[in-house]
Amino acid sequence: MILSAAAQMFRERGYAAASIDAIAMASGISGPGIYRYFKRKTELLVALLEAAVADANEALKTMMASIEDGDAVAAMADLMADHALREGTVIGLLQGTIHEMDETDQARLEEIRRGLVLRWATQLCRARPELTLQQAKVHVEAALTLLGHLARRMPDPGEQSRYRQIVRAVLLA
């Protein structure tokens, strides 16, 4: 409930205007009660990213189990783009506040990022066996960089289609 309230408040008010007390109130708990779960507002962002990554990884696992090999890269690119668009607020907030985070939160973000890249690169290697894991990581990193830009801009549907094509090209390069 706390994460849902935080995500909604960040979207509606922006990160700076969303106080811990307001998030607690929207969650139905007391202001001090929220500190049992989150010590800082940046911890909420990290937790939101963890949830988004877990969701993306589960979707990847499900998709890869049910897709033909020839379609895997295009499906991965579409899945990446869909998640970037859905989680654009969180991605944009993280990119804009990472410099404000303490070392613990920054280290956690890096751990999450490394795990995400490894999982997706491993799947890209399955779809493209000619790639080494390191090469696949480069492709995934490049795609994620592009998608980070996409998420911040929230392009119109015509641009979204173009981003998907570019992400496919990056994963296939």
UniProtKB/TrEMBL annotation:
HTH tetR-type domain: which residues? 1-56
What the entry lists under Gene3D superfamilies is as follows: Homeodomain-like, Tetracycline Repressor, domain 2
- DNA-binding region location: 19-38
Keyword list, A-Z: DNA-binding, Transcription, Transcription regulation
Q: Which parts form a coiled-coil structure per UniProt?
A: none
PANTHER family, sorted: HTH-TYPE TRANSCRIPTIONAL REGULATOR BETI, HTH-TYPE TRANSCRIPTIONAL REGULATOR RUTR
Name of the featured protein: TetR/AcrR family transcriptional regulator
Q: Per the UniProt entry, what species is this protein from, by scientific name? A: Sphingomonas colocasiae
